[in-house]
Amino acid sequence: MSTGMIVLIVIVAVVVVGAAVAPVLRGRTRRGGPGLRRRFGPEYERAVALHDGDTKAAERELTERVQRHGDLRERPLDPAGREQYAARWTAVQEHFVDAPRQAVAEADRLLAELAVARGYPDGGHYEEQLAALSVHHADHVDGYRQVHRVARTGASDAMTEAGSGTEEMRSALVGARALFDDLTRTGAGGSSPGRHRAPTSRVLNRGHLKES
């Protein structure tokens, strides 16, 4: 077979493969935006905002998160483990009354530890852990982000206006609670969602921390 014939066969093969793959790629492109928007919800809007409205750049980032962490399967918690985490969260809430900064830091550490127990990346790699959580708990992961920021930097105005600083820490802790509840659910075969939710009544009654 001549060289020219071989080249012709290769060109034809490339054209045929390209024609077969193109519709698939177009379909993925059409589904990418709405699919990512549905999957990530508020995280999608946050990513777009962080990329100054560049939707394509935001979708590339979110797609990379799915590629890295989409296959992660959460490990279940046994009933004793759930009860222990619930008790620790209750202690965090009660501690907030007298020491809000320390309580927020404790909540940050507790969420990182709980995420590891459910099979997420080590809490020592916060950004990677957060990215993985965003793939599977997009609606509530921002609560972890907020409590981590406040734990690391302190409330933004705590030094100039103590009341507002405490309110920012309270808001961060309440936001983080939603992710905590998600992570302490067992899924199929476990107890119904919310059954092991850490009680808040004692703290509520003292007027320092409340659900929103």
Tally of alpha and pi helices: 9
Mean pLDDT: 78
- The secondary-structure element order is HHHHHHHHH
Helix content: over 70%
| Distance N to C terminus | 76 Å
Report Rg: 23 Å
Measured by DSSP, the beta-strand proportion falls in under 5%
What's the main sheet like?
Answer: none
Count of domain modules: 2
pLDDT < 50 stretches: 21-31, 157-162, 188-208
- Alpha-beta content class: mainly alpha
Inertia-based shape: elongated
Count every beta strand, where a strand is a DSSP E run of 2 or more residues. Answer: 0
Protein name: Secreted protein
Organism: Streptomyces fodineus
Region (Disordered): 184-212
Transmembrane segments: 6-25
Task: Write a structural description.
This protein is 71% helix and 0% strand. The protein is mainly alpha-helical and 212 residues long. The protein has two domains: 3-69, no CATH class; 79-205, no CATH class. The longest helix is centred in the N-terminal third of the chain and has 38 residues, at 3-40. The radius of gyration is 23 Å and the shape is elongated. Mean pLDDT is 78; it is low at 21-31, 157-162 and 188-208.
